[in-house]
Design goal:
Blueprint lengths: L1 H9 L3 E8 L14 E4 L4 E8 L1 H14 L3 E7 L12
Antiparallel strand pairs: 1-3, 1-4, 2-3
Length: about 90
């Protein structure tokens, strides 16, 4: 039972942070549409967004095809929402 639930969750979209070495040029922004692109001072680009497993593999292929070194891929847990501030 756990395996079935776990497998189902893996196919749902998750938040990811993909870190690559070098700055991604603006002309490639459409290729990574739906993701936030952040160029950091250290000469790295961070792609963040909500993607499913198939889209994640596609994104990793695009990074490879650009010849940009992949530094890390991290699944990011969403921040918990504080519902106490919401008024009915």
């Amino acid at each position: 039972m756990w395996r079935l639930i776990h497998r189902r969750k893996m196919h749902e979209p998750q938040h990811y942070e993909i870190r690559i070495k070098g700055h991604l040029e603006n002309r490639w922004a459409d290729w990574f549409s739906g993701l936030t692109i952040t160029r950091e001072d250290r000469g790295e680009t961070v792609l963040t967004g909500l993607v499913d497993q198939a889209a994640l593999h596609s994104l990793l292929r695009k990074v490879r095809d650009l010849g940009m070194p992949l530094l890390s891929v991290i699944r990011v847990e969403p921040e918990p929402v504080d519902l106490s501030d919401i008024k009915p």
